[in-house]
């Protein structure tokens, strides 16, 4: 008997069930279009499940292809890390290159390619056959390998030099966890096209190097026990080390402290002038001992000097020097001429009662009459120019500095060593054969 179609309690006739896949019900109007299957072979009976399975394989293959393309773009066009130090010389870059070799960074991170640019380095990701194998197993392998290499590299760099991420002003102390540090190059003065600048790092190295003259900011001057305020940078690690040439007091400034309130050098080593020493008198304490610091590395004395270019014209200048034990009458030294320099520095102007000395002596000049018995390896810096020669001289003079790099024997090192007069008192330092390494391949 036919039921009425209206009224209370009337049951609707049961609908006929159809075999519609659950995935199709969920997709609704967003169901995959036929274009997704244009390369898929459709069998009789419209096997929908097989089509979906084939389409997923195709999409996975496309994702892997995109990963490979992205890796190739990074390797050829887009630097992942940009390291910069805005200074008037490249001695710090030569030092950084030697640190990279010393710690075998090029071997530990073979995926990273270095390129020398103005004021620093650009670092690219360089995928190789091993990366391609990983991609075939895991579509995210390229990104994981790239991220891990970059983070490990920056962590190691933060243990060697005072650096920070310029974009978000965070200091690299080596304590951060794996992951994006923020930053990148967006918002900087560099012109670089990128679809994802947050994946890049713009690393700034503190623009202070050994031999630079610095005027400490008032806040740092007060917190350090009033050292200086005119100090000389004598060592650079992941901290900056300064010495007051008038008292031999030293100061260590960590990267975190420096970048909280950055300051620039008052004068740099490119502005050093030659002075001739006429007389040296060592300063002694109440016990009659020579005033010294850093296990005798620095010894205080009062010296009389005259600018070498004005011998017989200018009057003698008296000043204190932290390297007096290395000097004697007739020696040539490098110093800063504060009397005739145009010192436009806000930190210096903040010291109203500060009386500037005429000259501050920084280091001794050595005239070696024989060729060096050692050489350096390079992988991206050009071993030439005045900055490079100055860097080599610093290595020859400073045993602490050269202990941080790799020195290799010259091809004629044995014959050259026989002509060198080694000075046990340190007044004429030379690198000895036992400090050198045999040939080594980068």
TrEMBL record:
<dbReference type="GO" id="GO:0043023">
    <property type="term" value="F:ribosomal large subunit binding"/>
</dbReference>
<dbReference type="InterPro" id="IPR039768">
    <property type="entry name" value="Nmd3"/>
</dbReference>
<dbReference type="InterPro" id="IPR048899">
    <property type="entry name" value="NMD_SH3"/>
</dbReference>
<feature type="domain" description="60S ribosomal export protein NMD3 SH3">
    <location>
        <begin position="212"/>
        <end position="256"/>
    </location>
</feature>
<dbReference type="GO" id="GO:0005634">
    <property type="term" value="C:nucleus"/>
</dbReference>
<protein>
    <recommendedName>
        <fullName>60S ribosomal export protein NMD3</fullName>
    </recommendedName>
</protein>
<dbReference type="InterPro" id="IPR048898">
    <property type="entry name" value="OB_NMD3"/>
</dbReference>
<feature type="region of interest" description="Disordered">
    <location>
        <begin position="1"/>
        <end position="68"/>
    </location>
</feature>
<dbReference type="Pfam" id="PF21193">
    <property type="entry name" value="NMD_SH3"/>
</dbReference>
<feature type="compositionally biased region" description="Basic residues">
    <location>
        <begin position="1"/>
        <end position="15"/>
    </location>
</feature>
<feature type="domain" description="60S ribosomal export protein NMD3 OB-fold">
    <location>
        <begin position="272"/>
        <end position="364"/>
    </location>
</feature>
<feature type="compositionally biased region" description="Basic residues">
    <location>
        <begin position="54"/>
        <end position="68"/>
    </location>
</feature>
<dbReference type="Pfam" id="PF21192">
    <property type="entry name" value="OB_NMD3"/>
</dbReference>
<dbReference type="GO" id="GO:0000055">
    <property type="term" value="P:ribosomal large subunit export from nucleus"/>
</dbReference>
<dbReference type="GO" id="GO:0005737">
    <property type="term" value="C:cytoplasm"/>
</dbReference>
């Amino acid at each position: 008997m036919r039921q009425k179609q209206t009224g209370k309690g009337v049951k609707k006739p049961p609908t006929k069930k159809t075999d519609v896949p659950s995935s199709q019900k969920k997709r609704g109007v967003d169901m995959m279009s036929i274009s997704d299957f244009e390369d898929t072979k459709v069998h009789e009976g419209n096997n929908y499940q097989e089509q979906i399975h084939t389409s997923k394989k195709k999409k996975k293959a496309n994702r892997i292809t995109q990963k490979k393309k992205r890796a190739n773009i990074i390797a050829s066009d887009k630097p992942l890390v940009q390291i910069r130090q805005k200074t008037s010389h490249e001695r710090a870059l030569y030092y950084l290159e030697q640190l990279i070799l010393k710690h075998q960074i090029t071997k530990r991170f073979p995926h990273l390619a270095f390129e020398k640019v103005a004021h620093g380095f650009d670092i690219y990701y360089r995928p190789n056959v091993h990366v391609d194998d990983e991609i075939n197993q895991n579509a995210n392998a390229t990104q994981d390998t790239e991220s891990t290499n970059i983070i490990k590299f920056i962590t190691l760099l933060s243990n060697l030099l005072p650096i920070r991420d310029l974009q978000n002003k965070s200091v690299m102390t080596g304590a951060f966890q794996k992951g994006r540090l923020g930053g990148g190059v967006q918002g900087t003065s560099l012109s670089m096209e990128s679809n994802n600048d947050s994946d890049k790092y713009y690393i700034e190295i503190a623009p202070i190097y050994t031999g630079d003259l610095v005027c400490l900011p008032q806040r740092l001057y007060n917190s350090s026990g009033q050292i200086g305020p005119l100090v000389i940078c004598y060592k650079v690690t992941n901290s900056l080390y300064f010495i007051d040439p008038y008292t031999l007091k030293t100061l260590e400034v960590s990267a975190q402290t420096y970048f909280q309130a950055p300051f620039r050098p008052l004068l740099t080593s490119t502005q050093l002038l030659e002075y001739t020493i006429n007389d040296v008198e060592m300063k002694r304490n109440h016990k009659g001992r020579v005033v010294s610091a850093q296990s005798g590395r620095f010894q205080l004395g009062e010296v009389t000097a005259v600018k070498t270019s004005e011998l017989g014209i200018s009057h003698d200048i008296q000043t204190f020097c932290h390297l007096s034990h290395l000097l004697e009458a007739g020696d040539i030294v490098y110093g800063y001429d504060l009397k005739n320099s145009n010192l436009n520095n806000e930190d210096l102007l903040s010291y109203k009662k500060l009386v500037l000395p005429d000259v501050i002596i920084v280091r001794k000049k050595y005239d070696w009459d024989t060729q060096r018995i050692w050489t350096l390896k390079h992988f991206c810096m050009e071993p030439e120019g005045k900055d490079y020669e100055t860097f080599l001289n610093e290595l020859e003079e400073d045993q602490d500095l050269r202990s941080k790099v790799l020195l290799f024997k010259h091809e004629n090192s044995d014959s050259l060593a026989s002509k060198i007069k080694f000075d046990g008192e340190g007044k004429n330092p030379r690198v000895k054969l036992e400090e050198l390494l045999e040939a080594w391949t980068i």
